[in-house]
Amino acid sequence: MSEVKQVICMRSDLKMRRGKECAQSAHASMKVLLDMMVMSYGDDEDLKDMKFTLTVPFQGPVWEWLEGSFTKVCVSVESEQELHDLYQQAKKANIPCAMIVDAGKTEFGGVPTKTCIAIGPWHSEEINKITGHLKLR
């Protein structure tokens, strides 16, 4: 069994407050998993009492990560373009990933801004091909 991890790539050019960075990385980590889930709604017409079912099709390395130590590594990228390029590389490699776009309500002057991505959880050696050259945060 190979090592499994998740890498959070955070833009350093935005100079976010530490708390903002923490919140953005948490959003990214969760979004990868939430994007894999399938939600189905009941037939109840009263939205207040609507019930839904959440199907979690986690398997392989994602399941290993959830059952293991939740290894996460945080690295820096220098620009939005670098963030975008890494995201596209992960998608092309079929590695679970998520891009976070902050709404700009507390920082960035109300402008939606791409702040970070999460790559994985997936096999470390495959993620390293994409992020291994980046500096730790």
Amino- and carboxy-terminal Cα gap: 28 Å
Count of domains: 1
Please tally the helical runs, counting DSSP H or I stretches of 4 or more residues.
Answer: 4
Radius of gyration, in Å, reads 17 Å
Oligomer: single chain
CATH architecture: 3-Layer(aba) Sandwich
pLDDT < 50 runs, ≥5 residues: none
Q: State the secondary-structure class.
A: alpha+beta
**Which superfamily, in CATH terms, is the homologous superfamily?**
Bit1
Strand order of the largest sheet: 4-1-6-5
CATH topology call: Bit1
How much β-strand is present in the residues? 25-35%
SSE topology string: EHEEHEHEEH
Mean pLDDT: 91
- Note the main sheet: 4 strands, mixed
Please report the first level of CATH classification, the CATH class. Alpha Beta
- Shape field: globular
Number of strands: 6
What helical percentage do the residues reach?
A: 25-40%
What does this structure look like?
The chain has 137 residues and is α+β, with helices and mostly antiparallel strands. The protein has one domain (4-131): 3-Layer(aba) Sandwich (Bit1), CATH 3.40.1490.10. It is 35% helix and 28% strand. The chain has a four-stranded mixed sheet with strand order 4-1-6-5. A two-stranded antiparallel ribbon has the order 2-3. The longest helix has 19 residues, at 18-36. It is globular and about 50 Å long. The mean pLDDT is 91.
